[in-house]
Every structure is written in C-alpha cells, then in structure tokens.
Write a structure and sequence with these properties.
By secondary structure, the chain is α/β, with parallel strands linked by helices. 38% of the residues lie in helices and 14% in strands.
Length: 347
C-alpha cells in the first residue's frame, strides 16, 4: 500500500469536508482507456495487439476494473474479437462492457463478460423531439431487466446526471434502484465543481445505499478534483483513463487521480506507480499523443528542479542533509522516480 497521506496539507484536514469525511471501505478505479470514451479522443482507434498490450499493463498497474468494449459506435467484429482475447488473459481486474442497446448487452454476454454499464441520457434539456421522461424511464427499465435476466451485474449510468433536475434524478434513481447494482453519475459535459459533487453524492446517498460511481469529464480541468471530493463524500468508483484520454477534454487521468487519493485521503488505492509510468508511456506511444513534460505524475519534468541558481543551491543543501523530500512536490521515490535522475538537478 502507498503511504502518501503524510504529504497532505494540514489545512485540508481543518476543512469542513474532511471533518465530515465519508470514505467507503474499498474505493476503486474503473479504467476506460480501452472503452469508446478513450478511443474517441481525436479519432483514436487501437489495433487488436495494442488493446491486448494496454489491458495487460493496466492489470499490472493494479486498476480494479477495466472496460474492454465500448458503445459508440456499436462494437465492430474486431472490437469483439479483441475483447474475447482480453478475457482469455484471465486478468485480476474486473472486466466490463459499456452498452446502450439490448443488442450490445447480448454481445457482451455472449463473449463472456459478467458486467455491463448501461448508458441512458436523462437530462430532459437534451431529449430529442419525440422523447418524454416516461420513455426514458421505460427504456432504462427495459435495458436493465434484459441485462439482469442474463445474469449480468449492472451499473446504470445516468448520462448528464449533473445537469438533470433533482426531481427527475430522484425519480430515475428511486424507480430503477431495485433493478440496478450500482449507479453512475455521468458528468458528461464536465459542468460540475467539487462543491457540486459533494452536494450531489450526499443527495444520491439519501436515495440509494448501492455503490455510486463518477464519470468525470475534464472540461474545465476539474475532473481529478471532482473525483477526489466525490470519494471524500462517499463515492465507491471513479472512471478514469491513462493520460486523461476521452471525449472532448478527456476524463480524469488514472495516474493523477491515484496520486490525489493516495495523498489527500485517508486511504490508498495501492497502484504500482512504476507500472503507471510504463502504461502512460505505452499509451502515449500507441496514440501518438505526447505527454506534456509538465504533466503531473508522469510528465518528464513534473518533478524537475528549477534551473535558477538559488533553487539549485537550496535543493542541493537539502539533499546534503537528507531532507530533499521536504522541497519536492512529491518525493520522487513514491512514484517510481529517482531524485538523482531528475532533470536539472546538479550534484
């Protein structure tokens, strides 16, 4: 287990949220790098061998759940074939499919998946012309019952939950709660803030005792902050992707969220940071999307010592006294790096 919590600011612990902390016993990362959300960034499409390679490294990282087949567009024969081969790997992580139709649910069942996430848009402002709230409820109920009759574990994702009226959101959850196993808050357009997610998680927990997920888009760079706040408020599962891939501005980055939890909560996700660096590099190589050097955790210069003479001297003196960790944002050894190999550090 990673013991990063001593790095947390003393002032965080004085905040109201921390005093009323409500962390569940087993918080999990649900990585969607291989799901359509990951591949839809900038028109990405993984080859079969690449999907298998990514699935293997995610399992070595220690993520708890992996989506191995997506929903948009509906899975191709190649997608299905890749998913079958990933299932043959017998990964430690739970494997899932993201679905929107009965056809997709049945395909997941046929290839051997035991779990699905069913996506239905529930924000009335985004309903198409001839769609009513009643239609959405009936559609959702029908999809969940179909999956449950196949023996599948069902997480129901209310897409655009964070823009849905409280009245209709309550109706959706209380009506469907006897059917689904877990509920997913879809922040589909990244409109919520940490303040809002704290309120929303606590509100939903009044309507269901079942595990709650967050699907956090990064529209205004709040995906990790929202996810951390959600966990402190009682979320069980957070959807992430390696390097923050995903539709529009992407999702919370797996590596950044893991560090945020390990530092700023009273728990550890227990991921292997050396393998996280490998996963980040692998996904960057496969996608052709370079990791910015200043990117938290996996960026080449994320922990680089500034080149100014004053800072170099300060850090050098700290190092002589074996106190260099006190001058670093995160002690490098905690995330699989060696301080002596950091850029611009003069010994």
């Amino acid at each position: 287990m990673n013991n990063f919590n001593y790095l947390d600011s003393i002032y965080n612990k004085k905040a109201k949220l921390y005093k009323n902390i409500n962390i569940v016993k087993n918080v999990q990362i649900f990585d969607l790098t291989l799901e359509a959300d990951g591949e839809e960034m900038a028109g990405l499409k993984f080859k079969e061998a690449e999907r298998i390679e990514i699935a293997k490294i995610l399992d070595e990282v220690g993520v708890h759940r992996i989506a191995i087949i997506g929903n948009s567009p509906k899975p191709t024969r190649d997608d299905i074939k890749s998913a079958e081969k990933i299932l043959d790997l017998n990964l430690k992580a739970r494997t899932n499919g993201f679905v929107k139709t009965k056809e997709e649910i049945f395909k997941c069942y046929k290839i051997g998946l035991k779990e699905v996430v069913i996506l239905v848009g529930i924000n009335k402002k985004a309903f198409t012309k001839n769609t009513s709230p009643k239609d959405i409820l009936e559609k959702s109920e029908s999809l969940i019952e179909f999956a449950k009759n196949l023996g599948l574990h069902v997480s129901f994702m209310g897409m655009d939950s964070t823009r849905t009226s409280p009245k209709f959101l309550k109706k959706i959850i209380t009506k469907l709660e006897p059917l689904f196993d877990e509920y997913v808050i879809g922040d589909s357009l990244g409109r919520i803030t940490p303040h809002g997610i704290e309120y929303l998680v606590k509100l939903i927990k009044k309507w269901t005792n079942k595990p709650i997920h967050l699907h956090p888009h990064n529209t205004t760079s709040l995906a990790v902050a929202n996810s951390l706040t959600g966990v402190l408020s009682g979320l069980s599962v957070v959807h992430t992707t390696i390097n923050g891939l995903g539709e529009f501005s992407g999702l919370a980055a797996t590596e950044e969220f893991a560090a945020a939890i390990d530092i700023h909560s009273k728990i550890s996700l227990g991921l292997n940071y050396s393998k996280l660096h490998e996963a980040s590099n692998l996904v960057s190589k496969i996608t052709g999307i370079k990791t910015p050097p200043f990117k938290p955790i996996t960026g080449k210069s994320a922990l680089a010592i500034p080149e100014t003479e004053e800072t170099q001297e300060f850090m050098y003196n700290l190092n002589l006294e074996n106190k260099i960790d006190e001058g670093m944002p995160i002690p490098p050894h905690l995330i699989g790096k060696n301080v002596m190999n950091l850029p611009y550090f003069i010994t």
